[in-house]
Every structure is written in C-alpha cells, then in structure tokens.
Amino acid sequence: MKAYVLINVRSGKSRDVVQAIGKLQGVKSANACWGRPDVFVLVEAANEKALAESVLDRIQQANPDTLAGIFGNVAWGNKESLPEHALKTQGLQRPRQR
C-alpha cells in the first residue's frame, strides 16, 4: 500500500525533516514544497495497519522537535488503521460521530 503523508514543520526546518525522513524504511520519497504543507512524503507499507503503526510512528520519532503535525490518507473513522494512540501522540482526537 502506498500513501502520501503531508507534514507541517516549524519554520526553517523543512530541509532537516526531509533529510531525516528520507532515510527511513518505507519512505519512497520526501520533498519540501512551498506553502503548506511543508513536506510531501510518499510511503509504502504492507497494509494500513503497518502504515499507521510503523511508518507514521517512525516519521514522528525521527523529528519530534520539528514536526508540527502529520496528516495522512488513513480514514479518521478506521480505528484499526488509525489507533487512538496515534492520534494522541499528535494531540488530536477522533471527530465525534453524529
């Protein structure tokens, strides 16, 4: 499974983040861009669960002081693919269902 991860970083840190994330297993490409988001990352994993638990965690751990937020293409409502701990590490919570 391939997914794009869009990352906002603190001002002046895009190059550092791209360099660190580009070395991670599962990352196929990492590129800085103008505007928001600051970095586009193409990742590949065996399935959505591996993507959320493995690749996204590694991206967050690679630059804990420079990442402002990570947003991927995993559905918010899919608790198997996007577990609560993944949201909490970013200070996020799942939207309430109506």
Task: Walk me through the structure.
With 98 residues, the chain is of the alpha+beta class. It has one domain: Lrp/AsnC effector binding domain/regulation of amino acid metabolism (RAM) domain (Alpha-Beta Plaits), CATH 3.30.70. It is 30% helix and 26% strand. It is built from three helices and four strands; from the N terminus they run E-H-E-E-H-E-H. The protein has helices at residues 14-22, 48-62, 84-88, and strands spanning 2-9, 27-32, 39-44, 67-71. Strands 2-3-1-4 form a four-stranded antiparallel beta sheet, with helices on one face. Strand 2 (27-32) and strand 3 form a beta hairpin. The chain is globular, with a radius of gyration of 13 Å. 21% of the residues are buried. The mean pLDDT is 75.
Helix/strand layout:
Layout: E1 2-9, H1 14-22, E2 27-32, E3 39-44, H2 48-62, E4 67-71, H3 84-88
Antiparallel strand pairs: 1-3, 1-4, 2-3
- Name the CATH class: Alpha Beta
Oligomeric state = single chain
Tell me how many strands there are.
4
By secondary-structure content and strand pairing, the structural class works out as: alpha+beta
Give a quick account of the main beta sheet: strands, pairing sense, barrel closure.
4 strands, antiparallel
In CATH, the architecture is 2-Layer Sandwich
| C-alpha-based Rg, rounded | 13 Å
Percent helix range: 25-40%
CATH superfamily caption: Lrp/AsnC effector binding domain/regulation of amino acid metabolism (RAM) domain
Order of strands side by side in the largest beta sheet?
Answer: 2-3-1-4
Outline the low-pLDDT stretches: none
For the residues shown, what is the average pLDDT? Answer: 75
List the secondary-structure elements in sequence, H or E: EHEEHEH
